[in-house]
């Protein structure tokens, strides 16, 4: 049976709620026979290191304080997660262990690795018990029984045998990360952050198919997303770059994590336990992903120069200090980058071969494809100069550039470095859904537009979707021959396949451009967001969906730093949303928006002069392709109702579609039944229209079909779509047939409103409006 290994880091187990979230993920994603490797909860290992330090310093008071801190944290978890016998048994076990630690302090028999092991032992026990209490067959396993090493070398053949028999098919195995045993049975650790390594080791031993590292970010980013919000999440990262990042001390993956995967087909992914729906980052073999750009920062380090470094020595030293040590050769001499707190240990161990050449330095490394390094290295140095940061040491290696500075690289400087060194030359994959009238024009316009945007972005049209067929070309379709490619290569449309293809796209950014009018397609938006796609829609359904769904979508987009534009869903290319956003951003208040937002109804009402029956006009418009296939869609007013809702939400108003009063431009009974029945009874429509028209004329006005949104001083909102009598001379009365008009009354445009008028439909203007959204997207991804 295919087995999977999951690993949850300390950040995923920092509170009782996090344990519950992890249990939920296990319930959803694990099968009996899978393994779950856990780290110590939250920062427990750090606390245990403190406990050890106070033990070494023989500071009894500090020891007891820290021990109490450890106890409180564990008690809190147990109290929140358990009741009854299980609660009592777990507490008793904990108290016994803490007592044993206190006694070992007194007897001075405390052992460093065994002390640190408690963190992982507690996590595994708590999680296994919690899962059991939820009815999941779970068993905790102490990894010291699985991973044995001799003289610092893991006994792979033996371990494999032991793991094979210990990991059966009848339970989910909760395995302690980080710890192992030596051949005498003494506890050893695999180094700080080593649980990632435990997970891949176990996967290798039991021939698992996949390892998922669950952490608190949704994957591997171009830089720490906690420091730079515009950090780019990469869908794929190649093993060599991930390994280099880890060797440079980046915490997202531990340095040794990848070694057990060499020569295997075991898949590795990084995912977020805080957002388990989100697509993670896949760490792939060489050749399966493009090389990316990263910046990783350093904590406080000492730079050591070493005479004659022997092979295997770095490994021994990093085992000694429990930390990865980056080493490199410069000017023919070996250098080590060691966390300052441990450099005395390293210097002692290498005595007299090592010297500190720079102490207490910080800085960063840029990891990038080798052809980019020289340029990035120079740019990085210039940027530091501009920011008055003094460099103490620099190294330009083949696939990274290293800069050590005398002060830390804070988030602001990191953001600038990221913006200039990583954010340039990015790729944006464009997927167009709906290749009808507008879609075709949009694609035709792509070539010129993509060229224009190419200075900052490399845009590629990678997918075309229609209701029955789709075409994917991950390296980008040939824009001069896309129609031919469509004819020769399009395959049957299939939703599951669509998401598989999107998942496989190895681009920094992806955007779905929805030019369909399909409600069903808009229902897929949350899934697109889970697949890290930005959205641009001409489709009105998502923007007018139920408010709860709509806000959830917006929230998800925000959480993932994704953008959504749907300007053309109202007024096609007319810059209505820009105007509304601008007014609001500059302190104005919108009081009322009214207008005609349907090209079809604009055309019908403006053309009607009584010389021809209204239904004749409707049929004429239908023949000219100005209406929906069934023109009652237009006459119902629902389309305008949706547009008014989009405008309202653009103003931040919480409104549902059916809260907008709707008065159709036809008698109610005609709305029902078939199109043929409608045709038979069209006289009723003519009478209806003529009657309303006559009333308007009596009042020196004209009949128009309008939408109006009014926001009272007290915030009360009144929204209505229906028949209006518009005084002759008003802007709405004199509308060019087919045009849309938006009359915006604000605090500043009070007497004399702001009017935006022009064609609100048509393939060229709509396609251009979508390009305007795409341009906006590229500007805002900067
Ligand atoms: P865990 O407890 O799950 O092992 P770690 O704290 O060891 O998690 O590692 C995850 C942290 O790594 C994130 O919270 C993030 O702040 C940091 N980090 C630094 N660089 C990156 C990066 N390039 N991509 C993702 N996370 C990063
Ligand atoms: N708990 C250990 C540490 O904090 C191992 C790990 O988290 O992977 O270093
Ligand atoms: Mg970690």
UniProtKB/TrEMBL annotation:
InterPro entries per UniProt: AceGlu_kinase-like_sf, AK-HD, Asp/Glu/Uridylate_kinase, Asp/hSer_DH_NAD-bd, Asp_kinase, AsparK_Bifunc_asparK/hSer_DH, Aspartate_kinase_CS, Bifunc_Aspkin/hSer_DH
Record key words, sorted: Amino-acid biosynthesis, ATP-binding, Kinase, Lysine biosynthesis, Metal-binding, Methionine biosynthesis, Multifunctional enzyme, NAD, NADP, Nucleotide-binding, Oxidoreductase, Sodium, Threonine biosynthesis, Transferase
A Gene Ontology biological process term: homoserine biosynthetic process
Pathway: Amino-acid biosynthesis; L-threonine biosynthesis; L-threonine from L-aspartate: step 1/5; Amino-acid biosynthesis; L-methionine biosynthesis via de novo pathway; L-homoserine from L-aspartate: step 1/3; Amino-acid biosynthesis; L-methionine biosynthesis via de novo pathway; L-homoserine from L-aspartate: step 3/3; Amino-acid biosynthesis; L-threonine biosynthesis; L-threonine from L-aspartate: step 3/5
Any one GO molecular-function label of the UniProt entry: aspartate kinase activity
Domain Aspartate/homoserine dehydrogenase NAD-binding: 434-564
Residue ranges constituting the Homoserine dehydrogenase catalytic domain according to the UniProt record: 579-774
Highest taxon in the source lineage: Bacteria
Catalytic activities: L-homoserine + NADP(+) = L-aspartate 4-semialdehyde + NADPH + H(+); L-aspartate + ATP = 4-phospho-L-aspartate + ADP; L-homoserine + NAD(+) = L-aspartate 4-semialdehyde + NADH + H(+)
UniProt keyword annotation of Metal-binding present: yes
Cofactor(s) annotated in UniProt: a metal cation
One Pfam entry name: AA_kinase
EC code(s) of this entry: 2.7.2.4, 1.1.1.3
The protein's role, per its UniProt record: Bifunctional aspartate kinase and homoserine dehydrogenase that catalyzes the first and the third steps toward the synthesis of lysine, methionine and threonine from aspartate.
UniProt similarity note: In the C-terminal section; belongs to the homoserine dehydrogenase family.
NCBIfam families: asp_kinases, PRK09466.1
Self-association and partners: Homotetramer.
Protein name according to UniProt: Bifunctional aspartokinase/homoserine dehydrogenase
